[in-house]
Amino acid sequence: MTAMREAGRMPAIDVVDETFLAVPRERVATVFADPAAWSRFWPDLDVELMTDRGAQGVRWTVVGERVGTMEVWLEQVLDGTVLHYFLRVDPAGRDRRRTRAEIRRDARADRDEGRRRQRDAKRIAFALKRDLEGGRPAGEPPEHREKRQRNENRHG
Question: What is the pTM of this model?
Answer without folding.
Answer: 0.81
